[in-house]
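User: quick one, fold this
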Amino acid sequence: MTRSPSPEALARLAAVVGERGVIRDTHGQEPYLHEWRDLWHGKTPLVLRPASTDEVSRIMAIAHETDTAIVPQGGNTGLVGGQIPNPDGSEVLLSLDRMTRIITVDAADFSITVEGGATLAAVQRAAADADRLFPLSLASEGSCRIGGNLGSNAGGVNVLAYGNARDLCLGLEVVLADGRVLNLLRSLRKDNTGYDLRNMFIGSEGTLGIITKAVLKLFPRPRRHDTAFVAVPSPQAAVTLLARFRQRANSAVVAFELIPEIAVQFVSRHMGVSRPLAQGSPWFVLSEFADAAEGAMEHALADAMEEGLVTDAALAQNETQRMAFWELREKLSDSQKFEGGSIKHDVSVPVSRIPDFIAAAIPAVEAFMPGCRYMCFGHMGDGNLHFNVSQPIGMDKQAYLDRWPEMSRIVHDVVLAHGGSISAEHGIGQLKRDDMSRIKSPVELDVMRALKHMLDPRGILNPGKVLPGA
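Assistant:
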């Protein structure tokens, strides 16, 4: 438990941002204190909403001096509880939702500089206005913020072609735990001058510093997209199809999403989204090419059908149909809420081992919880699957969710047996913190703790997240 801040410390912190930048009443704080899955509910004496890097710096200097714990938050879209303060009310929440500026767009340099509170959608729009592409794409892009995207090393549907958030970042400005500002805001593609400090903060989930600005990579804006919703008989057929697509179109393959039949049923039943293909299939793939040679996707699908890799396919004929395909994909997680409790796993395994992983994980969870309904979907092109398991029909929701640790242990054991990771893109936060001791070597944990202690010796930045015992 963190020591509660004194009234004097709270008054000093509030004075930095002024009345416009502080929320004291519990009703106004509520949107900041619970997350989308409703697994964590926090409490805080103050929500601070600084409007500048200088204000963040002054807040952290006071927090360091007074030993006050600070929980940074972007858009509050995280899925592992990393952005929620503890329930005892001893931690101050710092939101970046007033730091939303698009600072510069340099089309010639293919870069954009933004504040950490800019939403992902706003960055995408600013890039598009300059006839450029910022390719990070998530279902929550209208509300998630760049600081949080970088803090969690977000992934999304385009990692296959463009990489994670880490790969899309050129430079950072970070406020350290003691209030010092570390200026790494460079747009250089090559800078081989010592340790890569930037990457230390990306994926650190606000435990090492607060990302206040970022320089991000832009790309040429695609002139055409070819998008197909494809029925496949098995995960192995999908893996082979991915290889065929990449052989045919190479880097033009920007997305390759695996979707099971039950997911299509959930979305069509609860979200008002029509099935792209009338006939059911054990598995589907949603794939997209960007600026591929004309006819590349059609020819690849025709060859795949001859091989038996594809049993049916719908190729988007216009932008409306393309967006309808992507709407189905984006609503997969939301649709599970209507089916009761869902125990979720964000995992990755080597692409070639995905079929074996699925073949082992399904019977493992069914043996543990007869009648459970697995919904394994996600970014097959980069090996990241969301192996979510909905409760048996008729089971009490809370009784099911109480089995989360046991279910996750089973799934994670299968993941590790197949050379994978228990967190592909969501991070560790609170949800997976206690698993770190079993998935990381003592040496890895020692180095992580040493970095944490060096940068945050008082342990005031996002305590209780990522590192066990920290």
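User: anything notable?
Assistant: The longest helix spans residues 235-249.
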